[in-house]
């Protein structure tokens, strides 16, 4: 029995695997097998769909959300980016602080994006959460790669997720 406990203590919490999402145009490493979901969102009064892939590992949820836009106009992209940025901040009662970052393209090159790290109380139980996120727009897609953790994660786990996030 002691051996079983010792072996389970050594089992990896993070079992990284590369996921290629050809429908939504990205590749990313998830720390566990991801599930898929979809939800309706309202951006500037327009109904849109947000596809989500999520995986749980450690004390965190790793997610990539993709909003399909009605067009690829910069004003539409900006409205969707603002919606996602503000929503993440609102979820933890924080200011929507973000700074510029470059998001890599799988074929080479980069696109401009936003990066955020926010902490605050979330949910009806007012539990502390740390949110790490990167947002980007490319064509008719807007992307939100995020980690929501109940305590700060080791930087190597955050880096593994975000450094693997590439758009097509």
Describe this protein's structure:
The protein is of the alpha+beta class and 168 residues long. The chain has one domain: Mog1/PsbP, alpha/beta/alpha sandwich (Protein Transport Mog1p, Chain A). It contains three helices and ten strands; from the N terminus they run αβββββαββββαβ. It has helices at residues 2-10, 74-91, 155-164; strands spanning 17-21, 26-30, 35-43, 46-57, 60-68, 99-104, 110-122, 127-138, 141-149, 166-167. The strands form two sheets. The protein has a seven-stranded antiparallel beta sheet with strand order 3-4-5-9-8-7-6, with helices on both faces. A hairpin with a 2-residue loop joins strand 4 and strand 5. The radius of gyration is 17 Å and the shape is globular.
Provide keyphrases for this structure.
168 residues; alpha+beta; Protein Transport Mog1p, Chain A; three-stranded antiparallel β-sheet; 3 helices; 22% helix; disordered N terminus
Q: Helix-strand pattern, N to C?
A: HEEEEEHEEEEHE
Oligomer: single chain
N- and C-termini, Cα separation: 48 Å
- Sheet with most strands: 7 strands, antiparallel
CATH topology: Protein Transport Mog1p, Chain A
Shape: globular
* CATH architectural name: 3-Layer(aba) Sandwich
Find the CATH superfamily: Mog1/PsbP, alpha/beta/alpha sandwich
The count of domains is 1
Strand order of the largest sheet: 3-4-5-9-8-7-6
Proportion of residues in extended strands: over 45%
Number of strands: 10
Helix content: 10-25%
The CATH class assignment is Alpha Beta
Tell me the Rg in angstroms: 17 Å
Distinct helical segment count: 3
Structural class: alpha+beta
Low-confidence stretches: 1-11
Average pLDDT, to the nearest integer?
91
